[in-house]
Specification:
It is a single chain. This protein is mainly β. Strand 26 and strand 27 form a beta hairpin. The N terminus is likely disordered.
C-alpha cells in the first residue's frame, strides 16, 4: 500500500479575516464589559477585572443615544462639552474619570499640512505640559505598551484626512512606519478585540501652546482568532491505503494559550464511517497529541501539528475537527472558522483482464486497446466547502510492467489540464507483441520463432500475462467565502474569499492481458507413399522384363508463409519462413528390358537374324544338293540324301561360322536432382550387355592345326578323340578361334542415335499462388496429396519447396545390338571331331542387381533368357567321307 500523505492545515488567522459584530448591531454595554475584562486578564495585563458597571466617580455605563452609530465603546456618564454638528466634544468619562474625547468632533485647528511630523510629546502622562490635563487623569496602566501599536496606527489612519488622489494626508502609510506611536499616546481606555479603545496625543508646534489629537484605538490591532481551514484535503483515497491527515494549529492571539493559564483551547477529532456513522476504530493519532481530544497549548503566534492516520475503507469517511467550539476559552466572537468538515471518498481499484491470441502463422501482432477495458478512470475533486475553481493539475501515470512483451509502449504520464471537478481519463494503449517474446521460457531460454529457426513442439500453445498498471493524483483549488472577513472603516464587512487545495486519487489498478500463442511447426515425418520394388516376368522364358523400384531419397528444404497481424486483425507482411523439417522425395523408378533376335535398330538387317535364318541359305542349298560355293555363305551342310530331314548336319573339317544378331533395349525412368545422364541407366545397360552369352561345344581347329574350342582353348584328347569343352563368347571376352573377335557390341558409342533421353522437371514454386507438381505435394505437409490437408485447415500450416531446388524425371532409352562374327570369318571344325550332336546357342545369364550398387539393387536377381537362340548341329563323318566332295573349304 502506498501512503497518501494529506496535510490539513488549520490556521488561526488575523481577526480581519473573520466577521465581528458591528456596533450598530447593538452589543449591550454589560456584554462588552464582560468580554473585555476576560481578554485583559487572559492577556496578562491585569489580574483582575478592569471595567466595572460604574467608574471610580460612580458614573454608570452610558447608554446615551448620542453613542449610537459610534464604535463599541465602554463609556461612563453622559456626553458633555461643546456641541457641534450634532456631536459632543466628549462622549462621557473613562473608567478612571477622565474625559472621553470624541474623535468625530470637529478639529479645533485645521491645516493643509500633514500631522506626522508635528512635535509630538512622548509619555504625556508625565510631561509637564500635559500631565495635569483632564484627558490624562488616572493611571498609566496601558501606556507605553507596544501591544497597542497596531491599534494606534489603525486609528490614526482612520482619522487621517485624504488628499485629492485618495492618499492619506495626515498619516500616510510610509510615515506611520517611521515612528513608534505607542510612546506618544496616553491610553485612557484600552482596546480589546471586541471593543474600541481611546487615547490622546499632544503636539506643541509653538512654544507652550499644546494641542491634542484624539486617537481611536481599533480592535483590529488586537484581534486574533482560531481558524479551521483545509489547505489540502483529499477528496478521495484508494481503499486499503493508509490516509495520513495532518492539522496545523496556528495562533495569532497576542497571548499564550496554555493549560497552566487555563485558557488552552480544546480540540476534538471525529473520524467516522459515513455508511454506519460509527467511528473508524483503526485511527492512530500523533504529532503534538496522541489523543483524539484534549486541550492544546498554543504560545503567541505559534503553530502545532496534529496527525491522524487510518486505513481507507470502501465507504465514505467523514472528517470532523473542532477547536474552541464554544468560543469561550479563549474568548472569540468568530466561530465559523473553528470547525472543519470533509468527506473522503474511497477510490475502488479497477483490475481488468483481456486476452490476445497469436495464431499459428502470426509472427507479430499489433494491438490497440482501451486501458481497463474502457472503464472510467476517475479522480473526483470535491471542495470541502465552497466550490472548485480554475483548472486541475496532476497526472495519471500508466506503467508498462512487461516491456519485453508489450513493445513500442513505454508507458506515459497523462497530464491533468481541465476544469477542476470530476476528472475522467480513457487512455489508449498501442503496442506490438512478438511471437518470440510471447513464448520465451525464462527457465530454459527456449522460444518459438520460426523466422530465425527456433521451434517449439506443437501443436501446443503458450500463455503469458502482460500487465499495464496505472495510478495517479489530481489536484485542484477550491474557493469559499466566510461570513465577513474584514471590517471597513465605516464598520461594514466584506470577504474577498479564501482558497484551499484538495487532491483526489485516480482509480488505480492493473490491466492484465492473457496472451496465448498457438504453436505448430509441422510433422517430423510425412507418411511416404508406397512404391513397388519388383520385377515383372522375371523368369527365363520372357524376353521382356519390367523392373520397378523406389528412387533414391532426396532431402528438400521447405518454407512456410507467416505474417504479421494488424490492430484490425488484417494480415500483412507475408514472409517465407524456413520449415523445421526437411522433406524426403521418393518416387517410382522403372525400367523395361526387351530382347529381340536379329534386326538391328540401325536398319542394317532387313530380316530376322537368328542363327536359323543365318544358316538357312546354306541349309536349303544342301537339301537341294546345290553345289555352288556361293550358296554356302555361313556353313557347309551335308548334301547326302539321308540328311535331308536333319536340321543342321555337317561333316567335320568344313567351316561352320558362328553367326547371329541380337538386340535389346533398356528404357529407364528415374527421378534425379540433376539433368545428367544417369548411372542407373548406364550400369543397367552394361550389366545386360555383359550378361549375353554365345556358346558352342563344337570342336574347332586353329591355324596351328590345334584342336580348340570356340575360345581357342586347346582340347584334351581321350584315346583317338578329343573331349568336348564348351565355350562362350561375351562382351568382356569376345575373341574366339585364332583370337578372332567374333562378338561385336553396337551401342551409343557407335551411334548416338542408339541413346535417347527426355528430361522433365517437376515444377514447383515457393509462392503460395504458384504451381507445384502433385508428386511434390505428396511429400509436403498441408495438402490432400500427402493426406495432411488438416494441417492447413486447423493449424494454418502449409509447406512449399524452397526455390532453387530441382527434381527431374529422366527417361532414357538405349538400343544395343550384339553381332556374332559380323565379318563372317570362316571358322573350321576339327576334322577329328567325334560324331554326335552339338549345340550352338545364344542365351542371357542372370544379373545380380545387388552387385551393381544403384537403388534397384534391392530387386535381387534379374533372371536371364536361357534359350534366346539355339541350333543343334549333327556331326556325321568328316570331309574325307563326303561322297560328293563338291564343296571346297
Amino acid at each position: 500500500m502506498k501512503k497518501v500523505l494529506i496535510f490539513i492545515f488549520v490556521s488561526i488567522l488575523l481577526a480581519q479575516n473573520f466577521n465581528i459584530k458591528a456596533a450598530d448591531e447593538g452589543l449591550a454595554p454589560t456584554e462588552l464589559v464582560k468580554l473585555a475584562n476576560k481578554e485583559i486578564i487572559d492577556m496578562g495585563i491585569l489580574s483582575d477585572e478592569y471595567f466595572r458597571l460604574a467608574n471610580i466617580d460612580g458614573k454608570p455605563l452610558s447608554e446615551n443615544e448620542h453613542l449610537k452609530g459610534n464604535r463599541n465603546y465602554i463609556v461612563y456618564g453622559q456626553p458633555n462639552g461643546d456641541f457641534k454638528e450634532n456631536r459632543y466634544r466628549y462622549l462621557g468619562y473613562t473608567r478612571m474619570g477622565a474625559l472621553f474625547t470624541n474623535f468625530l468632533f470637529p478639529n479645533d485647528i485645521t491645516s493643509i499640512k500633514g500631522l506626522w511630523d508635528r512635535n509630538w510629546i512622548e509619555d504625556p502622562k508625565y510631561n509637564t505640559l500635559t500631565k495635569n490635563r483632564n484627558e490624562v487623569k488616572g493611571e498609566d496602566t496601558f501606556d507605553n505598551n507596544p501591544i497597542y501599536e497596531e491599534s494606534i496606527r489603525l486609528g490614526l489612519k482612520l482619522i487621517s484626512r485624504k488628499n485629492s488622489d485618495g492618499s492619506l494626508m495626515d498619516f500616510p502609510n510610509d510615515k506611520l512606519n517611521e515612528r513608534q506611536w505607542y510612546k506618544y499616546v496616553h491610553i485612557y481606555q484600552p482596546p480589546t478585540s471586541v471593543s474600541w479603545g481611546c487615547g490622546i496625543m499632544f503636539h506643541n508646534p509653538s512654544g507652550n501652546q499644546v494641542n491634542y489629537l484624539t486617537v481611536p484605538l481599533s480592535p483590529d490591532g488586537l484581534k486574533g482568532d482560531i481558524n479551521a481551514q483545509f489547505e489540502e484535503i483529499p477528496s478521495s483515497a484508494i481503499a486499503g491505503d493508509t490516509v495520513l491527515i495532518g492539522i496545523v494549529v496556528k495562533s495569532t492571539i497576542n497571548r499564550d494559550l496554555s493549560k497552566t493559564n487555563g485558557n488552552a483551547p480544546l480540540f476534538k477529532w471525529e473520524i467516522t464511517d459515513k455508511t454506519t456513522n460509527k467511528p473508524i476504530t483503526s485511527v492512530t493519532y500523533a504529532g503534538y497529541s496522541e489523543k483524539d481530544t484534549e486541550n492544546l497549548d498554543l504560545p503567541t503566534n505559534s503553530e502545532k501539528v496534529l496527525y491522524a492516520a487510518f486505513a481507507m475503507p470502501e465507504s465514505d469517511v467523514n472528517i470532523k475537527f473542532e477547536i474552541n467550539k464554544d468560543g469561550l476559552n479563549p474568548a472569540e466572537t468568530v466561530l465559523d472558522n473553528n470547525s472543519l468538515n470533509a468527506v473522503i471518498t474511497p477510490v475502488i481499484p479497477i483490475n481488468t483482464t483481456g486476452k490476445f491470441d497469436l495464431d499459428y502463422n502470426v509472427i507479430s501482432k499489433k494491438v490497440a486497446f482501451p486501458l481497463a477495458n474502457g472503464k472510467d478512470i476517475t479522480a473526483k475533486l470535491a471542495a470541502p466547502k465552497g466550490s472548485m475553481t480554475g483548472k486541475a493539475w496532476g497526472k495519471l501515470i500508466v506503467d508498462n510492467e512487461t516491456p519485453k512483451l508489450f513493445h513500442g509502449y513505454a508507458g506515459e504520464e497523462i497530464e491533468v489540464d481541465e476544469p477542476a471537478g470530476t476528472i475522467i481519463k480513457h487512455p489508449q494503449i498501442s503496442s506490438t507483441i512478438y511471437r518470440k517474446d510471447a513464448t520465451y521460457d525464462t527457465t530454459t531460454g527456449l522460444y518459438d520463432n520460426p523466422i530465425e529457426g527456433k521451434y517449439l513442439k506443437g501443436p501446443d500453445s503458450k500463455t503469458i500475462s502482460g500487465k499495464i498498471s496505472f495510478s495517479g493524483d489530481a489536484y485542484g483549488n477550491y474557493k469559499y467565502s466566510c461570513n465577513g472577513c474584514q471590517t471597513n472603516a465605516d464598520g461594514s464587512t466584506y470577504c474577498s474569499g479564501h482558497t484551499g487545495r484538495t487532491s483526489a486519487q485516480f482509480n488505480s489498478g492493473t490491466d492484465t492481458r492473457i496472451i496465448t500463442t498457438h504453436i505448430y511447426n509441422g510433422k517430423p515425418m510425412i507418411t511416404a507413399k508406397t512404391f513397388q520394388n519388383k520385377i515383372d516376368y522375371n523368369t527365363s522364358n520372357y524376353l521382356q522384363k519390367n523392373l520397378f523400384w523406389a528412387s533414391e531419397p532426396y532431402k528438400f528444404n521447405v518454407i512456410r508463409w507467416m505474417c504479421h497481424q494488424n490492430e484490425d486483425n488484417s494480415l500483412y507482411g507475408w514472409t517465407p519462413v524456413p520449415g523445421q523439417h526437411q522433406r524426403t522425395f521418393t518416387q517410382q523408378n522403372s525400367a523395361v528390358l526387351n530382347w529381340s533376335i536379329g534386326k538391328d535398330v540401325s536398319g542394317t538387317y532387313k530380316k530376322d537374324n537368328s542363327m536359323a535364318e543365318e544358316y538357312k541359305q546354306a541349309r536349303e542349298a544342301a537339301r537341294a544338293q546345290i553345289y555352288e560355293v556361293s550358296k554356302y555363305d555361313k556353313a557347309v551342310f551335308a548334301t547326302d540324301i539321308e540328311f535331308k530331314k536333319v536340321d543342321y548336319p555337317i561333316r567335320s573339317g568344313y567351316y561352320f561360322n558362328p553367326t547371329g544378331t541380337y538386340t535389346f533395349t533398356v528404357e529407364t525412368v528415374t527421378y534425379k536432382t540433376t539433368e545428367a545422364d544417369t548411372k542407373d541407366h548406364r550400369d543397367l545397360v552394361n550389366a545386360v550387355i555383359n550378361s549375353f552369352r554365345y556358346e558352342s561345344d563344337l570342336m574347332y581347329i586353329n591355324s596351328r592345326k590345334e584342336p580348340v574350342n570356340l575360345q581357342n582353348e586347346l582340347l584334351s584328347k581321350s584315346g583317338s578323340s578329343y573331349n568336348r569343352r564348351p565355350a562362350a563368347l561375351t562382351a568382356q571376352d569376345p575373341t574366339g578361334v585364332d583370337g578372332l573377335v567374333l562378338l561385336n557390341v553396337l551401342d551409343r558409342n557407335d551411334n548416338e542415335a542408339r541413346y535417347s533421353k527426355k528430361v522433365e522437371e517437376l515444377k514447383h514454386s515457393q509462392q503460395s499462388n504458384g504451381y507445384t507438381h502433385e508428386y511434390l505435394k505428396a511429400i509436403l505437409e498441408g495438402y490432400e496429396e500427402s493426406g495432411t490437408i488438416g494441417s492447413k485447415d486447423i493449424y494454418k500450416y502449409r509447406e512449399y519447396l524452397k526455390d532453387g531446388q530441382h527434381i527431374y524425371r529422366i527417361t532414357e532409352k538405349t538400343a544395343v545390338t550384339i553381332q556374332i562374327n559380323p565379318e563372317n570369318r570362316k571358322v573350321y571344325t576339327n576334322i577329328n571331331m567325334s560324331d554326335g550332336k552339338y549345340t550352338v546357342m545364344a542365351w542371357i545369364d542372370d544379373i545380380e542387381l545387388s552387385g551393381i550398387g544403384n537403388e534397384y539393387k534391392k530387386l535381387g536377381t534379374l533372371k536371364g533368357v536361357y534359350s534366346l537362340d539355339k541350333v543343334q548341329v549333327t556331326v556325321n563323318g568328316s570331309m574325307y567321307d563326303d561322297l560328293n566332295g563338291t564343296i571346297e573349304n
